[in-house]
TrEMBL record:
Keywords: Membrane, Transmembrane, Transmembrane helix. Signal peptide: none annotated. Pfam families: Peptidase_U4 (PF03419). This is Sigma-E processing peptidase SpoIIGA. The keyword Transmembrane applies. The keyword Transmembrane helix applies. The lineage of its organism: Bacteria, Bacillati, Bacillota, Bacilli, Bacillales. It comes from Cohnella cellulosilytica.
């Protein structure tokens, strides 16, 4: 078998550089390109030495850790023991994730006449998996593994950021209460124009059983003022929440003026770890006929004025 050391060096230079950049992305740091290049050169030279020179203990566990430490220090600096350990751990997580992706994709793309085609058993009962991959396919699967890792990391980061804005929300009306997850939206500036009461928005399906029959589905297509008009004087008195219904005008994304059906609750309580519970007495709950979160992460949107409310311990006991 002929091994071209220059190809080994260049391939590992590209791979190590991509791994280091993915590590920097995962750790949300921005090292300089010369530092990344220098660290990638160290890793590539270490891989090439395997075919160029025979040095005892060069490929022992301690030597591999030493080279990894050197690469991490060259790329990201030291910055203290905790920062270094986090960078070092992230470097190995990216390595394991991408290498595992390359091997997994290569076996997925490989065809064999039987499941034992790529396996060889040694005389003492060991198992050897044959793994061969052309350079082009290796590069393709490696880049795909890097992309999958970065996509998963970015999705996890966005989910963590989203969780920081989510509040547990308890809505109380008469003797009933509903607890849902709600997202704080600092861009929500919807108020009732007459009373200047802030309006939080909630999926209408939450109250599917408490609204008149079919309203939660009809709100997706029909204007709420049409639904209100169907409640004549007698029906309004029969409906327990008839006196709580409101119509709140708002401006849609396309600039057109619309109406939103809203309900006046007795109070709303907001809960979040590390914060005292907040009691909101002056609020309307607008009902959205669609789905606010396609992933079901939250069912309502909290108005920013609501998080300025008094804690429960100091809030008035009766709704305003």
């Amino acid at each position: 078998m002929t091994v071209y050391v220059d190809l080994v060096f260049l391939t590992n230079l590209a791979v190590d550089g991509a791994v280091l950049m993915a590590t920097a992305k995962a750790r949300r740091i921005m090292p300089s390109r010369p530092r990344l290049f220098a660290a990638a050169v160290v890793g590539a030279a270490y891989a090439a030495l395997m075919f160029w020179a025979h040095i005892p203990y060069m490929y022992s566990f301690g030597a591999k850790v030493f080279v990894s430490v050197a690469m991490v220090l060259l790329s990201f600096g030291y910055g203290g023991p905790l920062r270094f350990l986090r960078n070092f751990a992230a470097f190995y997580v990216v390595n394991f994730a991408t290498l595992g992706g390359v091997i997994g994709l290569s076996f997925l793309l490989r065809s064999a006449s039987s499941p034992w085609g790529a396996m060889t058993f040694t005389p003492d009962g060991g198992l050897i998996l044959e793994w061969q991959m052309q350079l082009g396919l290796f590069i393709l699967t490696f880049l795909l593994s890097i992309w999958m890792f970065r996509s998963a990391s970015e999705t996890d980061r966005k989910r963590q950021q989203l969780d920081q804005l989510v509040w547990e929300t308890e809505i109380r009306i008469d003797e009933e209460s509903w607890t849902i997850r709600a997202l704080l939206d600092t861009g929500n500036r919807l108020y009732d124009p007459l009373t200047r009461i802030p309006v939080m928005v909630m999926d209408a399906d939450v109250w599917k059983e408490r609204l008149p029959t079919g309203w939660s589905e009809r709100l997706k297509q029909e204007p709420p003022d049409k639904l209100i008009s169907e409640l004549d004087a007698h029906a309004s008195e029969a409906y327990a929440w008839g006196g709580r219904l409101r119509l709140v005008p708002y401006r849609a994304v396309n600039g057109s003026s619309k109406l939103m059906l809203a309900v006046k609750p007795d109070l709303v309580l907001l809960y979040r770890d590390g914060h005292p519970p907040l009691q909101v007495n002056r609020v309307l709950i607008g009902l959205d006929g669609g789905t606010l979160s396609s992933e079901g992460t939250y069912r309502a949107i909290v108005h920013p004025d609501m998080v300025q409310a008094d804690p429960v311990s100091s809030a008035p006991s009766q709704p305003a």
